[in-house]
Amino acid sequence: MLKLDDTVSKLHLLKPEHEQALNKLGIQTVRDLLYYFPRDWQDLSEIKKISDIRPAERINIRARVKQISSPGFPFRRVKITEALLEDDSGNVVAVWFNQPYIKNSLHTGKEYYFSGKGQLYQKRGRHTLQLAHPTFEMVKTETIHTAGIIPVYQLTEGITEKQIRYWIKQALEGLSDVTDLLPQKLRTKLGLVGHSAALQNLHFPQNEILLAQAKKRLTFEELFLFQLAFQLYKKTLKNLPSPPITFNNSLVSKFVESLPFKLTPSQRLAAWEILRDISRPHPMNRLLEGEVGSGKTVVAGLSMLEVASSGYQSVMLAPTEILALQHYETLKNLFAHTEIETALLTRSHKIGSLSKITSGHTKVIVGTHALLQEKVIFNNIGLLVVDEQHRFGVKQRAKLQNTSADAVPHLLSMTATPIPRTLALAFYGDLDISILRELPRGRKKTITKLVKPEGRDIAYKFIKQELKKGQQAYIVVPLVDPSPLDKSEGQKATTEEVKKLRTIFPEFTIGMLHGRLHGEEKKQIMDDFKSGKINILVSTTVIEVGVDVGNATIMVIENAERFGLAQLHQLRGRVGRSNLQSYCLLFAENAGETTRERLEAVVNSTDGFELAEIDLRLRGSGEILGTRQSGFIPFKIASLSDTKNIELAKKEAIALLENDDLKNYPDLAAKVSDISRQAHLE
Ligand code: ADP
Ligand code: MG
User: Fold this and answer.
1) Atom 15 of ligand 1 has which residue's CA nearest to it?
2) Atom of ligand 1 nearest to the CA of 290
3) Residue 569: CATH number of its domain
4) pLDDT at position 292, please?
């Protein structure tokens, strides 16, 4: 009998090299394998012809591989694999991006089932229909893999679909019953199937109905567990003490009058919501959302001012050194007419003295993560402001708590990512949200254009004109593998781009910015860009958040098709920061139909919330919250756009906690506390 905690090496036909490959997918144990859910299912009961392929429609075909190739041109940083497929109705090209190992698992002359989507593709001005990244399975009569509905898994080099299916099948068959965490009462009420049956039917469904039941059950379970963790956290927070910050009306009025501009109505409302929250003796947990340039910093500044006047410190954390420096400068200016002393702490900059921070004399401290790591002793933190961090700073607060007094600081998270309500709810239970909806007046809308490969020369000519007028440009390049571990990727990409641009813009100065540069170097380059010494700044997405250079009016995004819409929108927000007309040029190489549709959305809409919703629908949630990079992907099967089930799970979680029933289900309680720990909800 297999146990859930056994390592996968116990499975039949699983060699050490397979184990290594599985580890790369995050699979160590039999449990991990069973919870490695299919990313899709292939219904092989309906096989069509190549001539039936239509754009944007999913299809299964049975075809012979005539030829396999990996053309290099024109995708410079994308690895393409192409296969020419043929059946008695005709032929079609199947295309995969960045899956070079496909070459080794497909064989010329052999017949396979392919399942994928038709896609219109423009090649040298001609539209052709191709099959976009299909999954495939060799045709054999006796195999279990091709009967009815078969699961399709995300693979990695060294493992085939067949192998992973075989191992999962074994694991399911050799397993004693898996504990069902959901209370029987709840299962009956909602008509949910048992956990073991659900697992069985998720991997190897007998039919569509059983598959749907399995999905329903596991989706609910996943959402329910997270909602339990969130709701518990919310209850805990309600009972924790935080310093009540007294509302100082005259101080606020004086501050607002000292500003060189009038606050927008939503800035006023947000400030009021925050000041109300922090006047209470329990922790505030508020997210301040606002487009780039909507003026979040001054709202945070106002709150920090109040906190200081009550005798507490405020800490503001930024994701990068550049941003920390910018916030420091902004806050210093804002507080110029006050007694408030501001300090800056990053790995490469220290302005202000540590002893004054420890003594409590310095009331406003701006820094990066380094601030948390270097064991700075604070005196009495009343407010933590976290700018642009995923998971809204919960983890950051957990770390700071130790350094401050017994009271828990209030938490204000700020983000320019418009997070749809459903997402915030799914990711955080009930987070309080303030939204800055309007941009301060006097800004011109950025003109956005989609530039196809043939339009490149004209675009460069236009950029040159603007540069000659004295404007500056950002040019952003994507990374093929945005792994935080491999920073050389960004260096390579920017260096290549600079080399190319030197021949196009020989008369201008080009600088580059990527993750491998040190704080000092980055600051130097940003300073040179700000002062106009650098005309063109080539960068990876490290400039994505917050950078503010009013004279930069051109944003070029290379391989725009590789970015999420929300991210494109955010990058676009780097320009249009003054009353000058700005332009955002999306250079797209692969003008497939869905790609064009997505990019047109950015061209046509300047509403970040709308774009986020579209992104959520088209690409899933990971891209919006950057969960892939943050390493925290809570949901395997639930969809974050599934408002109905999220609400249901929330309702049932609250009900269970209300009756204090969780203690009657020790396995469930243990699982929930695991999740809380993972999500830093403790
Ligand atoms: P973000 O929300 O992107 O962090 P910032 O706080 O950096 O935006 O503000 C962007 C710019 O707008 C800053 O230069 C700031 O001084 C200015 N600003 C903020 N609020 C207003 C306002 N109500 N009217 C005019 N300008 C404002
Ligand atoms: Mg900002």
Assistant:
1) 295
2) 2
3) 3.40.50.300
4) 74
Q: Among the three residues 415, 437, 461, which one is the final residue of a domain in this structure?
A: 415
pLDDT digits (tens, 9 = 90+) for 297-326: 999 999 999 999 999 999 999 888 888 888
Residues 317 and 385 in one domain: yes
What's the pLDDT tens digit per position in 250-268? 999 999 999 989 999 999 9
The alpha carbon of 631 and the centre of ligand 2 are apart by a number of angstroms equal to 23
Q: Is the CB of 416 under 6 A from ligand 1?
A: yes
Write out pLDDT tens, residues 173-182.
877 768 899 9
Specify whether 380 is located in the same domain as 465: no
647 assigned to some structural domain = no
Report yes or no: 45 and 51 within 8 Å, Cβ to Cβ: no
Q: Are residues 253 and 333 in the same domain?
A: yes
Residue 287, C-beta contacts closer than 8 angstroms, at least 6 positions apart: 392, 412, 413, 414, 415, 419, 424, 431, 432, 433, 434
Regarding the beta carbon of 418 and ligand 1, being less than 6 Å apart is answered: no
Which of 605, 633, 660 is a domain's end point? 605
Cα 610 to ligand 2 centroid, rounded to whole Å: 20
Whether ligand 1 lies within 6 angstroms of the CB of 334 is answered as no
Q: Which atom of ligand 1 is nearest to the CA of 442?
A: 25
> Ligand 1: which of 298, 414, 570 to mutate, judged by most atoms within 8 Å of the beta carbon?
298
Task: Classify the C-alpha dihedral 489-490-496-497 as positive or negative.
Answer: positive
DSSP string spanning 44-94? TT--B-GGG--BT-EEEEEEEEEEEE---SS-SS--EEEEEEEETTEEEEE
Residue written as token pair 């792994």:
483
pLDDT > 80? residue 522: yes
Q: Are residues 463 and 388 in the same domain?
A: no
Nearest ligand 1 atom to alpha carbon 330: 16
Name the residue of 256, 266, 289, 297 whose CB sits within 8 Å of the most ligand 1 atoms, as the mutation to test its pocket.
297
Give the residue-averaged pLDDT of 111-137. Answer: 81
pLDDT tens-place string over residues 639-669: 766 778 888 999 999 999 988 789 899 999 9
Quick check: CB of 267 below 6 Å from ligand 1?
Answer: yes
Task: State the distance from the centre of ligand 1 to the C-alpha of 330, rounded, in angstroms.
Answer: 10
Q: Which residue range(s) make up the domain with 122?
A: 46-147
Greater pLDDT, 598 or 394: 598
Give the residue from 442, 451, 418, 416 showing the smallest Cα distance to 576: 442
- Residue type (1 letter), 392: F
Q: Given a cut of 60, is residue 621 above it in pLDDT?
A: no
- Work out how many domains the chain is built from and give that number: 4
Which structure tokens are listed for 638? 């639930």
Does 10 lie in the same domain as 76?
A: no
Lowest-pLDDT range of 135-139, 192-196, 405-409: 405-409
Does one domain contain both 378 and 272? Answer: yes
- Of the pLDDT bands very low, low, confident and very high (cuts 50, 70, 90), residue 47 is confident
As to burial, measured by CB atoms within 10 angstroms (0-12 exposed, 13-18 middle, 19+ buried), residue 127 is: exposed
297 in contact with ligand 1, CB cutoff 6 A: yes
Of 190-194, 360-364, 572-576, 616-620, which range is least confident? Answer: 616-620
Query: From the CA of 552, how far away is ligand 1's center (Å)?
Result: 16
